[in-house]
Hints:
- The chain folds into three domains: 6-89, Orthogonal Bundle (Arc Repressor Mutant, subunit A), CATH 1.10.10.10; 94-162 and 267-294, D-Maltodextrin-Binding Protein, domain 2 (3-Layer(aba) Sandwich); 165-266, Periplasmic binding protein-like II (D-Maltodextrin-Binding Protein, domain 2).
- Helices cover 43% and strands 23% of the residues.
- It is built from eleven helices and eleven strands.
- The strands form three sheets. Strands 3, 4, 5, 6, 9, 10 and 11 form a seven-stranded mixed sheet that branches.
- A hairpin with a 4-residue loop joins strand 1 (51-53) and strand 2 (58-60).
Amino acid sequence: MPDLSTRQLRAFIALADQRSFTKAAAACHLSQPAFSALIRTMEQSLGTRLFDRDTRSVQLSAEGRLFETSARQLLGDFCLAISDLGDHVERRKGRVHVAALPSLAAGWLPAIFAEFRKTWPGIDLNLSDLLSDPCIDLVRSNKADFALAATGTSQAGLDVQLLCSDRFFLVCRKDHPLASEKALTLKKLVPYPFIHMSRNSSVRQALDAALRPLQTNTFLEVDQLATVTGMVEAGLGISVVPALTLFHFERKALVTRSLPIPNLTRKIYVVRRQEGSLSVAAKALHDLIVLRMKG
């Protein structure tokens, strides 16, 4: 198969348009001998004459006319591919898919997405707000570029980097006895009815690990933080939630109090595949998230 260069295609199209070696050579910023050699080499590679020329005129041969449409298409497609790649490299275009815990997706990521979109408006953003395991599954299956999840540091085939440690807070009504308790401890919390997140949530798993061997007085287990808010506000129980979820509990009837318990934290990680690199667009969002979280 002949190995043609874009330089040769440009020369061919220039000569097809100009019908003059002198004018076509000038259009290609080449000397006439160099231009003539380029066309000759191209014809030799293809095994046919592309132009009929004499001392007075240059015309496309029958084979040249046959090749002209394809040559213009080839060069156009190549230029479009290079332009499209350049747009991605310069972050004028692109697509990023992030998987994130719902608490991050609702409370912290919107400002990051807004900042990113303002800087690079041509990049499409996709977000999957899921629990940790489904987030990691999306990364493994190459459907998400990276995830923000609470997971163990050992994940085969994945690169896991600590993003932050999320402290926990008590949430209760302002008229609840714990709202004015001077020194909060886990032992003081456990007698009261609890509104818990489901057992497969990172919030619940971190809390259960810190409480062990203590047992809470569980009143309800729910899937959504908004449901926890409503139940606590109704006086049905208390809850313990991470700092990154506190925006859910900004209600007049509620109070949030920090729990000074060293082992009660939820670690948030950036998770991505070890194999391969992030696209330029995904790397830009990844770096912005890390910068803002650690800043």
